[in-house]
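Lon proteolytic domain-containing protein
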Amino acid sequence: MPAVTRSRILAACAVPVLALFAVAALAPLPFSLAEPGLTADVLGERKGEKVITVSGAETRRTSGELLMTTIAATGPDADVGLADVVDGWFRSDRAVMPRDSVYPVGENPEEIERHTREEMKQSQDTATAAALDLLDRSPKKVRVTLRLADVGGPSAGLMFALGVVDTLDGDGRGGDLTGGATIAGTGTITADGRVGPVGGVPLKTQAAARDGATAFLVPKAECGDAAKEKPAGLRLIPVTSLKGAVTALTALRDGGRVPTC
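Tokens:
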């Protein structure tokens, strides 16, 4: 085949290929972009309200902070293009996540908001049950109310439970779990105190370091992801249970042996 003819054929084939790349670059893709979100001290106040209030039992004055952490993601109807995805892949302060993993219930904003609020309410109830079970307190006698505006999802369960434990009992000997430090973390929790994995851990560690945390409680299954992009000066502590988290914090405060990722 003459060279000129081959060139014309290749040129003709290149046109639709380039057109496909152009369309892909402009078309929205099924991804969300996430970055470090807000943190909130579960031992303190949020928007003028105490996060944890208790009736039916004495509470104790706490020091330090227990920060729950979040990610901030683009909305379900946001147009995320190829350029955004490529940029996100090469940045440590941003993550590209499948949209379905961030918004598993669809693209209706009202439906998504309702779903995340329901997850948060269930997480709060389960965290309370786990904390009272650990402390051998009766939920019929002790009423715990958790309030945290503008935050949804189940990933604050561990930190809520630790906040209830610290508010009611501390370390059991009058001391704070935090030792006056700022401790952050993430993880779902079951009523019997088992800690489960969540999404976006590397971004949450960045949010924690940004807001002054010196240690971060991470579900043990996600130690690898957390360690890959660990912020300088932030200690990663793997946990599998609420009891284990309390033990680790007490050891950290007292200079004892603490597991690390």
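The mean pLDDT is 83.
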